[in-house]
Amino acid sequence: MSAEDATRTTQRRYDRIAFCFDALEALMERRFRPWRHALWARVPPGRVLEIGVGTGKNLPHYPPGAAVTAVDLSAGMLWRALKRKEQLGAEVSLSQMDAQQLAFPDGSFDAVVGTFVFCSVPDPVAGLRELKRVLKPGGRIFLLEHVRSEQPVLGWCMDRLNPLVVRLVGANINRRTVENCRQAGLLLDSVEELTPGGLVLRLELKSIH
């Protein structure tokens, strides 16, 4: 499958499930919400890019003083983010955009934030390099990501289940996101394991110039 086909397939998957996405994640979101809040509490004021805004679950956690631009590949997800923006009265600019080809000049943002995004980007290293490109010198990237387990048996099971999970909900459950960040030229400033076995990580990164 070509890169363009993979991106279109991902877009269609999320457009297809956008209407029920929040319901699908309702139980997990009870655990995710405090992690989202803690992540955004670390984001400094200034120009901030949220990558993969989805249905807008992070909007309630945007910090004061941040001018946030939020993008997503799926028009269906963005429509729901717009509704949430209107309900909350949130100050955010929403745009449909591919994380692998961001339409922003180099060095546009003081910080970039993503929560559970790089499980779904078809070429995660390309997407992470784009974050590096649009980040100002000295800026930081803040991520929450679920990743492949380093435990041999669990990791093996995740590899075997991954094709089915991707078809159903679009997310890869066996991404090696820490290694992908290194390949993209990003320096891991801090890594925090939020679950036993390191299945969910909080990452803080900066660009290697």
Fill in the keyword field for this structure.
209 residues, alpha/beta, Rossmann fold, 40% helix
Structure, explained:
By secondary structure, the protein is α/β, with parallel strands linked by helices. It has a single domain (about 5-145, about 175-205), classed as 3-Layer(aba) Sandwich (Rossmann fold). It is about 40% helix and about 25% strand. It contains seven helices and seven strands; from the N terminus they run H-H-H-E-E-H-E-E-H-E-H-H-E-E. A seven-stranded mixed β-sheet has the order 3-2-1-4-5-7-6, with helices on both faces. Helix 5 (about 125-135) crosses helix 7. The radius of gyration is 16 Å and the shape is globular. The N and C termini lie far apart (about 35 Å).
CATH architecture: 3-Layer(aba) Sandwich
**Main sheet overview:** 7 strands, mixed
The structural domain count equals: 1
Query: Average pLDDT across residues?
Result: 93
- Could you tell me how far the N terminus lies from the C terminus, measured between alpha carbons in angstroms? 33 Å
Structural class: alpha/beta
State the CATH superfamily name: Vaccinia Virus protein VP39
Provide the β-strand percentage band: 25-35%
